[in-house]
């Protein structure tokens, strides 16, 4: 009996598998038929609407081209602006470096000229300012001394005036009155 149960089990499994296979085959055939019919319908539609569909495709292509041009132009503008900013930054950096180098050269030149002038005995600007200030002070001192001495000479040279009363002096006073 055990053998019979095994065979009947196998037979039922085989029958189920055959049923599934035939259903799958029917589904495949049905799907292939639907694809074929869709293709035939597309061909018929293309024959009917051929020129209109072509014009519509051309219009959509033109719109796509316009949109892509504007986006490409925007991208190019952005790239140029970015490049321009980068170039300006680099130029500014180079300009700053050149100015710094020029300042260093100027300072080096000035220090060498100053050393050469010191070696030959030419006074520096600060020494000249100091001497000018000292000369101005000395001039003021000389003026003050000469003013004092001139007052002293005039006082000694001219004794105080005393008026003597004379007849002629009295007459002239009376005549004036």
Question: Can you describe this structure?
Answer:
- There is one protein chain.
- The protein is mainly alpha-helical and 177 residues long.
- The protein has one domain (2-150).
- Helices cover 92% and strands 0% of the residues.
- It contains 3 helices and no strands.
- It has helices spanning 2-120, 125-157, 167-176.
- The longest helix is centred in the middle third of the chain and has 119 residues, at 2-120.
- It is rod-shaped and about 175 Å long.
- The model has no long low-confidence stretch (mean pLDDT 79).
Would you summarize the structure shown here?
Helices cover 92% and strands 0% of the residues. The chain is an all-alpha fold and 177 residues long.
Keywords for this structure?
single chain, 177 residues, mainly alpha, 0% strand, rod-shaped
Q: Helix count?
A: 3
Overall helicity: over 70%
Number of domains: 1
**Percentage of residues in strands:** under 5%
Question: Which SSEs are present, and which pair or pack?
Answer:
Elements: H1 2-120, H2 125-157, H3 167-176
């Amino acid at each position: 009996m055990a053998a019979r149960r095994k065979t009947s089990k196998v037979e039922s499994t085989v029958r189920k598998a055959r049923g599934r296979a035939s259903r799958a085959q029917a589904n495949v055939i049905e799907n292939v038929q639907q694809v074929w019919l869709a293709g035939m319908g597309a061909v018929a539609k293309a024959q009917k609407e051929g020129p209109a569909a072509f014009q519509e495709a051309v219009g959509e292509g033109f719109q796509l081209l316009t949109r892509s041009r504007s986006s490409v132009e925007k991208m190019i503008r952005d790239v140029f602006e970015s490049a321009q900013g980068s170039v300006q930054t680099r130029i500014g950096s180079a300009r700053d470096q050149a100015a710094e180098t020029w300042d260093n050269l100027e300072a080096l030149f000035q220090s060498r000229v100053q050393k050469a002038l010191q070696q030959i005995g030419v006074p520096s600007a600060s020494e000249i300012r100091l001497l000018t200030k000292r000369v101005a002070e000395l001039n003021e001192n000389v003026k003050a001394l000469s003013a004092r001495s001139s007052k002293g000479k005039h006082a000694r040279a001219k004794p105080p005036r005393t008026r003597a009363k004379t007849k002629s002096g009295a007459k002239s006073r009376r005549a004036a009155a």
